[in-house]
Specification:
The chain is mainly α and 206 residues long. 79% of the residues lie in helices and 0% in strands. It has one domain. The longest helix is centred in the C-terminal third of the chain and has 26 residues.
């Protein structure tokens, strides 16, 4: 069992980390502004589902094995970078959507959800982060460490969901302004593409 003080500290740290700019936040923000609240929530749910994979990986020691194998770690890192480049191309080549014409649904919510799952699931740095972050809040003398890490992982996922949902709601006024002018949408897509390329480079280089 985890002591209450540790949970409070963990929740605070998790919330702060969720708001740090990165691939996840960019993805949620972009989908929210371009396609609306439902798309932002679909992206959020996909990203949080990807965190389930990393929680299980760390809990059962898979992340430790990946960290111990430079080849496996590099392979996963390049897979994640390739997917970010794919998202960059999709953003750069995307056309503007006319306000109110229903084209915001051109990319289905399940497709956005799958993107979120892949983005987190293919990023080995998330697993390594969990491997370094979660054990700090466990205490062997208070029960099974594995069960504590599962609780911490679930708590982190809930915190991430809440924080990303806040970002989704906050992005709506900006999103309505952007969707009202095609040229704004195009430039936002290109900006997102540049950000995704930068994040891919950072992930690939390490």
């Amino acid at each position: 069992m985890i002591i209450p003080d540790a949970i409070v500290t963990f929740v605070t740290a998790s919330a702060l980390l969720a708001f740090i700019p990165g691939p996840d936040l960019v993805f949620v923000l972009t989908e929210s502004m371009l396609r609306g609240k439902r798309a932002g929530l679909a992206a959020t749910m996909g990203l949080c589902s990807g965190l389930l994979f990393h929680t299980a990986a760390v809990t059962f020691g898979v992340a430790a094995l990946v960290q111990a194998s430079p080849i496996a770690f590099a392979a996963l890192r390049y897979i994640g970078a390739t997917y970010l480049l794919y998202l960059a191309w999709k953003s750069f080549s995307a056309s503007a959507m006319a306000a109110g014409d229903g084209s915001a649904r051109a990319i289905s919510l399940p497709a956005i959800y799958r993107r979120g799952v892949i983005m987190n699931g293919a990023n080995p740095k998330v697993a390594i982060f969990f491997l370094a972050f979660l054990p700090q809040f466990t205490q062997a003398e208070r029960g099974g460490v594995a069960s504590q890490m599962m609780v911490l992982g679930a708590t982190f996922i809930v915190c991430s969901f809440v924080c990303f949902a806040i970002v989704t709601l906050a992005a709506q006024p900006i999103g309505r302004w952007i969707r009202g002018a095609p040229d704004r949408q195009v430039w936002l897509n290109r900006l997102a593409a540049i950000i995704f390329v930068g994040l891919a480079a950072k992930l690939a280089i390490g």
